[in-house]
C-alpha cells in the first residue's frame, strides 16, 4: 500500500495541473489554473514552463492547453493492448503445447523491457513481474532478443559502450540460430528460451518460455521450433 504521507508535492501539482487542463473545454490562463488548484502563481508558472518545454502543455499568448505529446502516454497503452490481443491466443497455445510458462515482452527504453502478458504453466511468476517491472535488455535472454533484432537499438548501445565483446558474440549467435537461451536467468534451476515475434517486417515483441525443468530444455526447444515453423 502507498504511503499517503510520502507524497511529493511537485509531482502531485504536476498531475493535478494536467487533470485541470484535460477537463477544460477551453484554454486556461495562469490565474485560472492557480485558482482551481489553490496554489501560488509563481510556483505554478515554473511548473507550467517545464511542461511546455517537455511538450506536454501548449502556451499560446499566456493561455494553456494540453499539447500533442500527452497523447503518447495513451497511445503507448493502446499499442500494448494491440500487441497483447495479437499474441495472447498464440502464447496460450505454445504454453499448453510445451508445458512451460510463456511471457510476452516489449522493449521499454534502450536498456529495459517489460512483461505485458503471460500464461503460467510450469513456472510461477513473482508478484513483481506481474506488475510490469523493468528488466535488463543486456543481461537476459529475453532482453537480448531486442538487441539481436533491433538494429537501431544495438547501434545506439554500441556507441554508448554497453555492448561487450562477449555480448557481441552472444548476439551474433542469437541472430544465427533464431533464439536466445539462458539457464538460471530467472532463478536457479530454471531455463528460459526467447524468440523474436516479427510483425510486418519489424520486431514486435519477445516471446519467452520459462520452466523449472532445465533437463527438458532440448525437448521443449524441439517442440516450440516445430510450432513456430510455418
What does the model show?
- The protein has 230 residues and is an alpha+beta fold.
- It contains 9 helices and 9 strands.
- 49% of the residues lie in helices and 22% in strands.
- Residues 1-7 have low confidence and may be disordered.
- It is elongated.
- The strands form 2 sheets. The protein has a 6-stranded antiparallel beta sheet, with helices on both faces.
- Helix 1 (9-23) packs across helix 3 and helix 6 (141-149) packs across helix 8.
- Largest sheet: number of strands, sense, barrel closure: 6 strands, antiparallel
Could you estimate the helical fraction of the residues in percent? 40-55%
Gyration radius, in Å:
23 Å
How many β strands by DSSP? Answer: 9
Going by helix content, strand content and strand pairing, the class is alpha+beta
SSE sequence, one letter per element: HEHHEEHEEHEHHHEEEH
Poorly predicted runs are 1-7
Straight-line N-to-C gap: 47 Å
Q: Globular, elongated, flat, extended or rod-shaped: what is the shape?
A: elongated
- Tally of alpha and pi helices: 9
What's the SSE blueprint?
Elements: H1 9-23, E1 28-29, H2 30-37, H3 41-54, E2 57-60, E3 63-66, H4 70-98, E4 101-107, E5 112-119, H5 127-130, E6 134-136, H6 141-149, H7 151-159, H8 165-177, E7 180-183, E8 191-199, E9 202-211, H9 217-228
Antiparallel strand pairs: 1-3, 2-3, 4-5, 4-9, 5-6, 7-8, 8-9
